[in-house]
Amino acid sequence: MKNILIFLLSIVKILSFILVFSLILLAIMQPLYILKENEISITTRLGKIERTENTAGLKYKIPFIESVQIFPKNILRWDGEPQRIPTGGDEKQLIWIDTTARWKIVDINQFYTAIKTMNRASTIINAAIEPAVRGVIAKYPLLEIIRSSNDPIQRLSDGILKPQNTTNNTTYKITKGRKIIENEIIEVSNKNTKDIGIEIVDVLIRKIGYDPSLIDSVHNRMISERQQIAEEQRSTGIAEQTEILGSIEKEKLKLLSEAKAEAAKIKAEGDHEAAKIYAKAYGKNVEFYKFWQALESYKTTLKDKRKIFSTDMDFFKYLHNKKI
């Protein structure tokens, strides 16, 4: 019985030692905490901000009096819910806009005072970004929202859409475009968060969808625009065809004119040479030269069968002269 009592006392001593050691270890470790490189901490005392820590390492606090909350320093992602928004301009089309954003804490004191915890941050950012998206989108026509330039889109063989560096023939010209609209949303969102220590780094329109009630009208509009572009391209093609044919006709007339001039030059040279030969022949045999000239004249004159000639004319003396 005595041995059992001694054993129980030994166990009690061991447990007491472990308890005392644990309390001492807890008392030593409780004031200390580790802050990572991508974290920032805020220390409060009785609910009031005492100090902030922005550098990584081992930090301290006063046990039971001070409390520490740790927040991320890196850029965080926010995903909004799709919103049904009417576009601006004359069309007033209902579309679904799905946006995403990136944000970060820039003033931990303001952030803690206004929000306190990260769980509330998403709700606060919703209240800042979603009204900005609705307000900005409602100012612009649909084409301004879905496009960033007037360059037409070319679908490559691998399915990627790539803008061409040519002038678009659509009637509506983009004045701002999607990127500028996104920047405007960022600007408005930051105005909404300027007093809570948050900066909206960027806002991206992730997806745009037509309301089901507008699909038919949108398709008809797309068909009409494509037909208009096709008609303009046909007109341009006809104009270019006319210009090309005109150039060809001009070149043809130029070549014909040059050929005729060259032919006339050659003929003149031939006539000149013939005249020289005739003159030389005339000097040798006058009668033969006259005879030859008469035969040449018969070739051209007697072709016209509608003319009437008298055989007594001196013109026909070589035809009826039996001596020849």
Describe this structure in words.
The chain is 50% helix and 21% strand. The strands form 4 sheets. Strands 6, 7, 8 and 11 form a 4-stranded antiparallel beta sheet that branches. It has a 3-stranded antiparallel beta sheet with strand order 3-2-5, covered by helices on one side. The model is unreliable at 153-170 (pLDDT under 50). The protein has helices at 2-29, 108-114, 118-137, 142-146, 178-193, 215-284, 286-301; strands spanning 32-35, 39-45, 48-53, 57-60, 66-72, 76-79, 83-86, 94-105, 153-155, 161-163, 198-210. It contains 7 helices and 11 strands. With 324 residues, it is α+β, with helices and mostly antiparallel strands.
What topology does this entry show?
Elements: H1 2-29, E1 32-35, E2 39-45, E3 48-53, E4 57-60, E5 66-72, E6 76-79, E7 83-86, E8 94-105, H2 108-114, H3 118-137, H4 142-146, E9 153-155, E10 161-163, H5 178-193, E11 198-210, H6 215-284, H7 286-301
Antiparallel strand pairs: 1-4, 2-3, 2-5, 6-8, 7-8, 8-11, 9-10
Order of helices and strands: HEEEEEEEEHHHEEHEHH
| Top-tier CATH class of the largest domain | Alpha Beta
Strand content: 15-25%
Q: How is the biggest beta sheet arranged?
A: 4 strands, antiparallel
Class by SSE composition: alpha+beta
CATH superfamily membership of the largest domain: Band 7 domain
Number of β-strand runs: 11
CATH architecture of the largest domain: 2-Layer Sandwich
- Distance between the amino and carboxyl termini: 182 Å
State mean pLDDT (0 to 100 scale).
80
Helix content: 40-55%
Determine Rg (CA atoms, Å).
51 Å
